[in-house]
Amino acid sequence: MMKRIIGVIVLILVAVGGYFGYRYWADTYQSTKAYAVVQQQVPEKTKAKDDDGKLATDGHDRQLYQYEYHFDWVTTSGKTISNTFYLLGVNPTPLKPGSYVTGEVSNKRVNQGPNAVSESDVPKDVLAKLN
């Protein structure tokens, strides 16, 4: 009897862990194509820092710099997703202000992109929501 109770408890814990693991994966990595407009003002170029607050460098001990962008993405289904993207590099080139970009976006991050596109490449219904 005790083995069955322990077995049921373990099964419940595995199911709960699986559910929360799937939710994390879906929010973080399951992405969809979306479009955004780059903010009009170029953000300040700052020295990048790692998770410990130390200045970040590349593999050759060169300082990394970043631009912090805030995007309001519109997916092809019409959903709006807001998130932050850090353009990072030794000498990063800022995105062109007012330009259109596309990317693969999840609820928590930009998984691929942003890549510049022309206004004619943005679907009309998405363009209406962006403007």
Provide an overview of this structure.
- InterPro entries: DUF1093, YxeA-like_sf.
- It holds the Pfam family DUF1093.
- Residues 121-131 have a biased composition (Basic and acidic residues).
- Residues 110-131 are annotated as: Disordered.
- Helix content is 26%, strand content 33%.
- The protein contains two helices and six strands.
- Strands 1, 2, 3, 4, 5 and 6 form a six-stranded antiparallel β-sheet that branches.
- The termini are far apart.
Q: What distinguishing features does this structure have?
A:
2 helices, alpha+beta, 131 residues, 6-stranded antiparallel beta sheet
Helix content: 25-40%
**Which runs of at least 5 residues are low in confidence (pLDDT < 50)?**
none
Termini gap: 65 Å
Q: Let me know the number of strands.
A: 6
Order of SSEs, N→C? HEEEEEEH
Q: What count of helical segments does DSSP give?
A: 2
Q: What's the number of structural domains?
A: 2
Give the quaternary arrangement of the chains: single chain
Rg of Cα set: 20 Å
Structural class: alpha+beta
What proportion strand?
25-35%
Approximate shape: flat
Biggest sheet character: 6 strands, antiparallel
Question: Mean pLDDT, rounded to whole units?
Answer: 95
Describe the secondary-structure layout.
Elements: H1 2-28, E1 32-37, E2 46-47, E3 65-75, E4 80-89, E5 100-105, E6 110-117, H2 124-130
Antiparallel strand pairs: 1-3, 1-5, 2-3, 3-4, 5-6
Short description:
By secondary structure, this protein is of the alpha+beta class.
